[in-house]
Amino acid sequence: MTTRAPYPPVNGDEPCRHNPDLWFPSTGGDVRPAKEACEGCHVRVECLAFALDHTDPAGYQLSGVWGGTSDTERRQMTVGRTRPLGPINHGTPGGYRSHLRRSEEPCEPCRGAHRDMKAHRRTAAAA
Ligand code: SF4
After folding, report:
1. Contact 61, 55 (CB under 8 A)
2. What's the 3-state SS for the chain?
3. What is the pLDDT of residue 42?
4. DSSP bridge partners of 66
5. Atom of ligand 1 minimally distant from the CA of 17
6. Helix axes 32-39, 44-53, angle to 10 degrees
7. Residues with Cβ within 6 A of ligand 1?
8. What are phi and psi of 66, to 5 degrees?
9. How far apart are alpha carbons 15 and 23 in whole angstroms?
10. Which residues contact 21 (CB under 8 A, 6 or more apart)?
11. CB neighbours of 46 closer than 8 A, spacing ≥ 6?
12. Residue ID of nearest Cα to ligand 1 atom 8
């Protein structure tokens, strides 16, 4: 069984505490179930901020799904991290990611755009 690194503030109710292996799929494994479970987690924003703070410029990062993001997504989020952050394009999936990069809770229009994108992907995957 895989264990997760400790970080505040957790209370044991986080979905990853109950089935941690799902958050560390083997190479090429499906990260979607873990990412979806993270969506409703009470520490999602803090968890993502923790994972981003533990990624260094050389690319070392925590493995697995953290705060609803995969290794690849976090790597993309940290590229050019030293540049100033531009304005948020609200109501878009990119805006949703911009909020998370700032370690802030996405606004409703951005959450809606993220939900729509996920629903579209699910529909496309089911077809
Ligand atoms: S957001 Fe973080 S703490 Fe919450 S379920 Fe996902 S990985 Fe676990």
Report:
1. yes
2. CCCCCCCCCCCCCCHHHHCHHHHCCCCCCCCHHHHHHHHCCCCHHHHHHHHHHCCCCCCCCCCCCECCECHHHHHHHHCCCCCCCCCCCCCCHHHHHHHHHCCCCCCHHHHHHHHHHHHHHHHHHHC
3. 87
4. 69
5. 8
6. 120
7. 14-16, 23, 37-38, 41, 43-44, 47, 65-68
8. -135, 130
9. 10
10. 1, 2
11. 7, 8, 9, 67, 103
12. 16
- Quote the pTM value: 0.63
Give 67's contacts (C-beta < 8 A, 6+ positions apart): 38, 41, 44, 45, 46, 47, 48, 49, 50, 51, 100
* Two structure tokens written together for 8: 């505040």
The residue whose CA is least distant from atom 3 of ligand 1 is 14
pLDDT at 1 over 50: no
Residue keyed to tokens 């990260």:
31
CA Rg value for the chain: 15
- Rounded to 10°, the helix 71-78/93-101 angle is 80
pLDDT, average across residues 112-120: 92
